[in-house]
Amino acid sequence: MAKADDSSLDPEELRAVQAAARRALDRASAWGIYPTPTAVILEAASLKVAPASAFDPRRITDYLLGKAESAAVALKSAIAKVFGIYDAGEQLIHIDDTVHKSKQNFLKLHEAGHHELPSHRSAFRLFHDCEKTLDPTISDLFEREANNFARFVLFQGDGYASMAADHKLELKTPMKLAGKFGASVYASCREFARTHHRACAVYVLEPVTYCEKTGARAKVRRIEASPDYLRQFRRPDETEITLDHSLGRVLPVGRKMTRPTTVSITDRNGQAHECVAEAFDTTFNVLLLIYPVKALTAVTVIIPSR
Length: 306
Ligand SMILES: [Zn+2]
Prior knowledge:
alpha+beta; Arc Repressor Mutant, subunit A; Beta-Lactamase; seven-stranded antiparallel β-sheet; about 20% strand; binds zinc ion
């Protein structure tokens, strides 16, 4: 099953979150500095990060048990791995330092979001983020708000989109920009598709598996599409890509990547469009980018005279 929505907010909620994120970037004078200096953002917010040695699941459980709202929290920690904790009383963040650096970075900003959004702090003394809350099946408002705070600070509003616009519409671009923004390739690909000014979509797939009957297949983890793509095509809602799907031939089977390949996608009016799709297997996920060719040729083809 595809991952639950972890980020949608209504316009008013989003505006409030973005205002708080903007203030955090202002306070740290971090605009235009890439990757966003997370340490400076936290310091300017008077937030401390507990030493990595403190992140021991047993000690965390003890720590949580010492807090008032321990019963529910301790239960939660029993069923899912904890990645991050924000303690409002101590203005302290605990981060699991065994997860990838780019994820730690996002986690710190997510916890900073709980700190910077006044309604969060007044509701809870302790935020406890694990697989369930960060990539939830039941995603609650505070978690979606904290994710949007982190996303805004990490990608500096439309900073990512304007940089992406100066690069080619190809899978290499979000992979390259991930490093520039200190984001995971996964987060960068999502941001790329969500904010691109041209029609495109990114499918994040689980690793390819094989089935006697149907051959190679990959379950959909998440699909993000640009506003133009959504206007032109339907919102993609596949739950898996099999070989008989139009994108089936793009699955990188027995190879690391699939070079740009022509595929056909039907638009809202039932008209088929020539599109280009390419894929890359990160070993954790398969990333697949698709975009209609027409938009590409209309905007960018310049034939040099020789
Ligand atoms: Zn959280």
